[in-house]
Amino acid sequence: MTNIIIDTNIWHYAYVEPKEEGYLKIHEQARKFLKDTLLNPEITVAITTHQISEILDLLRKGGVSRLVMLELFEAIKSKKFIIKELTAADIESSFKKSLDSGIHIYDYLVTLPLKGLVEKIYSADAHLQHKDFKDIAKVENPVFPWILKEGKKPVQQLQR
User: Fold this and answer.
1) The dihedral of CA 138, 143, 152, 110: what is its sign?
2) pTM of the predicted model, to two decimals?
3) What's the whole-number mean pLDDT along residues 33-58?
């Protein structure tokens, strides 16, 4: 069994409809990746309680229906997922890493508490290419060539 993290941005692109035609491809890639991953019996998704809230709020803001969000929440409670509740120590270590790196605490709250439990992190976030995250697990972008930078629209990178 392989334990992985699927970063919030992948959930967003898989569930939220594209607002611009030029971004249809990233949404399609995210949907296919998420579907294939969730159907793979050899993969378990590790997720923190913080990330569950983050995903559900982002999907709400993206206009995803109540029914779909309720179904997703029920799925997250299944054996396909390993849920890690955050502790004060998790928040403190995430906060300190955030101060040192300048990367917001949320990326750390999604990943750092799962160190030692996961083999891969799937994310399109440029921040997750930082060594702190590569020390947690191998980082792979399932929607390559798309890359995300905080506060900006997705762009296509020229090479890996």
Assistant:
1) negative
2) 0.95
3) 98
